[in-house]
Amino acid sequence: MDIWETMYRKASAQYHPEEVTPFISAHHVVSALESENGEIYVGFCIESCCGVMDLCAERVAALNMYVNSGQTVIKRILTFREKAPDGGESGMPCGACREFLMQLSLKNRDTEIMVDYASRTTVTLKELMPNWWGMKRYEEADSLPSSL
């Protein structure tokens, strides 16, 4: 079993779409990520009518990683609904998630994002954000966080 299958299985365990209340739904998008030290963290999407508290599965997985280990670097990430990513835009993180991952660590530019599970096709975050606005801030920082 390769790392992608391990991640897929762990994320699949979180996939059980539910209406938490008439206003909040959860578990309809799931994600698994591999941290820099090889640990796997999972997350699921949670959405509400107000929108302010909405969190995508990728951000929940990344927050689980940070809260539980203090890590900020993500080697790989896999996100899906009822089936594994199957090409095109399938499995692509939204703009807010892309932005959060870049801000979490500059090393996340190299995060592999699964776009086609069957062929194991991936893209990197830097391919999706080639001219990211925050690079100048990282370059100008007097002291970079140790996770960079």
Description:
The protein is an alpha+beta fold. The chain is 29% helix and 26% strand. The chain contains 5 helices and 6 strands. Strands 1, 2, 3, 4, 5 and 6 form a 6-stranded mixed sheet that branches.
Search tags:
6-stranded mixed sheet, single chain, alpha+beta, 148 residues
Q: Largest sheet, if any? A: 6 strands, mixed
Radius of gyration, Cα only, in angstroms?
A: 15 Å
N-C termini distance: 30 Å
Q: Could you state the order of secondary-structure elements as H and E?
A: HEEEHEHEEHH
* Structural classification: alpha+beta
Total count of helical runs of at least 4 residues: 5
- The count of β-strands is 6
What fraction, in percent, of the residue positions are helical? 25-40%
Mean pLDDT: 93
What's the short story on this structure?
By secondary structure, the protein is α+β, with helices and mostly antiparallel strands. Helices cover 29% and strands 26% of the residues.
